[in-house]
Design a protein that fits this description.
The chain has 120 residues and is of the alpha+beta class. It is 18% helix and 45% strand. The protein has an 8-stranded mixed beta sheet with strand order 2-3-4-1-5-8-7-6, with helices on one face.
Length: 120
């Protein structure tokens, strides 16, 4: 399938509680990554399918965000916009990782695009 889901991300006010829940439910293990400025990004990778991460961002609601892989973040963002998407953020760089855009489709559903630094 072209453009598969490649990453899932949880924004939550209590990462410890979320890690305990998903570890107990699915057996996921987590790696904590210091992103600087006091932000910890906890990643997980199940045996199959996309992995993801979770973090706390003050003022953000609790939600899961799905990322779809693209070859060219700028072209994909422009195409989404031409098809009626509202661009919330991006394209933006994740240093040493890649680029992302967060958008809402014409019906209002939020989804993200991701282009890795190295080809998928």
């Amino acid at each position: 399938m072209a453009n598969p889901f490649v990453h899932l991300e949880l924004t939550t006010p209590d990462v410890s509680k979320a890690k305990e829940f998903y570890s107990g439910l699915f057996g996921w293990t987590f790696t904590d990554n210091d992103m600087g400025g006091g932000m910890i990004y906890s990643t997980f990778k199940p045996d199959s399918g996309p992995g993801g991460g979770m973090f706390t961002m003050p003022g953000m609601p609790t939600f899961w965000l799905a990322y779809v892989g693209v070859d060219d973040i700028n072209a994909a963002t422009d195409k989404a916009k031409s098809l009626g998407a509202t661009i919330h953020k991006g394209p933006a760089e994740i240093p040493n990782i890649g680029w992302f855009t967060i958008l809402a489709d014409p019906g209002g559903a939020t989804i993200a695009l991701f282009q890795p630094k190295e080809p998928m």
